[in-house]
Each structure stands twice: as structure tokens, then as C-alpha cells.
Amino acid sequence: ARALALLSDEGLSQPGIVVKTSSPQGEHERLPNPTLAETDGRITVKFHPWSIEAIVASEQAAH
């Protein structure tokens, strides 16, 4: 939801713009992965709730 606040209403309402939410889960992932994606069919921008540092720390803590 916070990521959507960064996008203008005008930009999101343009023809051909699609906004999608998902929660993909990779094998052995420790953190939940809710994802927000915006695409125009050519370029997709994905927003994730975790920083790269948090993901790496989570994976290192498991080993």
C-alpha cells in the first residue's frame, strides 16, 4: 500500500497500465514476499517490503 502512494493517480489510470499484487514464495525463503507490480506490458516495476540487506541477513541467520 505504501508503494502505491508513490505512484500518481494519473499514472495508474493510464490505458494499458496494470497493477497486480502477489505473494510468491521461493523454496526455503524465510521472509514473506508480498509484491506489488505495475506494468505497461513492456516495463514492469516491482515493489518489495524488504531491503536487500534484510534479505541477506535473514538468509545468513539461517545458516
From TrEMBL:
Pfam families: YecM (PF06185). InterPro entries: DUF991_YecM-like, Glyas_Bleomycin-R_OHBP_Dase. Residues 16-35 are annotated as: Disordered. Coiled coil: none annotated. One of its GO terms (cellular component) is cytosol. Gene3D superfamilies: 2,3-Dihydroxybiphenyl 1,2-Dioxygenase, domain 1. PANTHER family: DIHYDROXYBIPHENYL DIOXYGENASE DOMAIN-CONTAINING PROTEIN, PTHR37519. This is Metalloprotein. The lineage of its organism: Bacteria, Pseudomonadati, Pseudomonadota, Gammaproteobacteria, Enterobacterales.
